[in-house]
């Protein structure tokens, strides 16, 4: 885990290895880490998500993402979710809609996050 500055925003970047975000409590731990680091955006590699996180019927993603929004934290899921999108129209719609907003994003690379942040802060 590291904290970096990106377009004037402090970003907590989780490593690909580590405890997966597989429960609501795990999401709370990430939020706590972000506050401890003074970050306002968290970049989570898709590899760190538990196997059910993006299965929308579990409601885990919605619950965790809502907490991010409630605490005025932004979250970027970084990595390739193409295979998951192919298997779920609901997830495709969810990703498309969240990417239109300012709080939750799904991006392929950390470079894509940097570009998005540059656009958001201009």
UniProtKB/TrEMBL annotation:
Residues 8-116 form the DUF4180 domain. It comes from the Bacteria. InterPro entries: DUF4180. This is DUF4180 domain-containing protein. Pfam families: DUF4180.
């Amino acid at each position: 885990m590291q904290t970096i500055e990106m377009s004037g925003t402090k970003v907590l970047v989780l490593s690909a290895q580590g405890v997966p975000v597989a429960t609501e409590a795990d999401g709370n731990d990430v939020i706590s880490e972000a506050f401890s680091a003074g970050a306002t955006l968290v970049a989570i590699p898709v590899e760190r998500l538990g196997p059910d996180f993006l299965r929308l019927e579990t409601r885990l993603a919605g619950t965790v993402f809502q907490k991010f929004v409630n605490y005025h934290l932004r979250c970027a899921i970084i990595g390739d979710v193409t295979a998951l999108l192919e298997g779920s129209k609901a997830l495709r719609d969810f990703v498309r809609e969240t990417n239109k907003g300012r709080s939750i994003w799904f991006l392929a690379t950390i470079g894509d996050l940097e570009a998005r942040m540059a656009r958001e802060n201009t």
